[in-house]
Write the structure tokens for this entry.
Amino acid sequence: MTRELLSANHAAATAVILAGEANRKGRGFGGGVYPITPQTECIERICAHRFAKGEVIRVESEHSAMAACIGFSLAGARSFTASSSNGLAYMCENVFNAALYRLPIVMMAVNRTIGPPWNIWVDHGDTLSLRDSGWIQFYCEDNQEVLDTILAAFRLAEDPEILLPVLVCQDAFVLSHTMMQTEVPDPAEVEAFLPVLDLPHRLTDAPVTVGGLDFPHETEVHRRQHQEAMDRVPGVHERIRGDFAKIFGRGLAGSVVAYRCEDAETLLLSMGTTASTVRTVVDECRAEGRKVGGLKVRMFRPFPEEEIRRTLSGAHKIAVLDRNLSLGSGGILWTEARALAPRDAVVQDYILGLGGGDIRPEHIHGILTDLESRERASSPVILEVA
């Protein structure tokens, strides 16, 4: 184990290189890559590495990048790519294809606002728009979590009980271009954690059709199987967390992370880097004697309903902090989490930080002041912070 000063982009690339080399005794590593701000530094570092077995293909578009990953994965290689914003939108068709082929591809997305008008700063709407694509989704808070989650994502995606692609998300610039001390495992530790990939449905010399025509009942069967695999994700993820701690000597965050929630009457739900600011505010409120807690949602697909419901069970007022907006509905985390709150709780949606706007402690204190004055929830509140 070493400690290195890494941006989250480089932390992601470091994890991918370690995972790719760990499969050299299998069918190696392969990925298709195409640059887009702010994830380009990740694929630049991966392209600069010469893999012992495998290669990275520089393609002409994001759609082709995922197509290349599909080809590598169907051949049994460990596969990865990265993208962001409109690049993910252009890739969308093949994002669905990768999941419906049940391929264990890992993708890192740097969350960025979808344009036009063009904006290169953070907004979770790009990846949340893919929430129905059949990919497992994780949202990371810091650079260490990015590195660790990508290693765990390969293990989860490739588990015989799962065989689904995984999307690991990080906030544009807040993480992607920010440096922090990051613990990097030794290659031997990664090899102990990541078994050689043996994809049961990989292509061989025997002729086979991939992506043929399904009749209605066949589609029903495939969707049920896909859903059953998603249902198994939480249990397999917990098993992986145990192995991660044993091999690397540090914990891997769970699907949700509760902070001072045991007796909390007011709760703040968030995802990504917003959670660190929430913890600062929770500590300040606790110092004043106010029973406030924070809940970070790390796994968004499959949605961790039981854990969220259990944590919200004692809360009277709940603020959901959404760094996204589903036009015509509201924040996406709020849309899914509000049904899990106690029947008599006030669950208010606050949409903030869109397009990379700051989310500072004073903004969250203002949200708490508004929430505590409410007897009932209203339509989502969109905060415009200068």
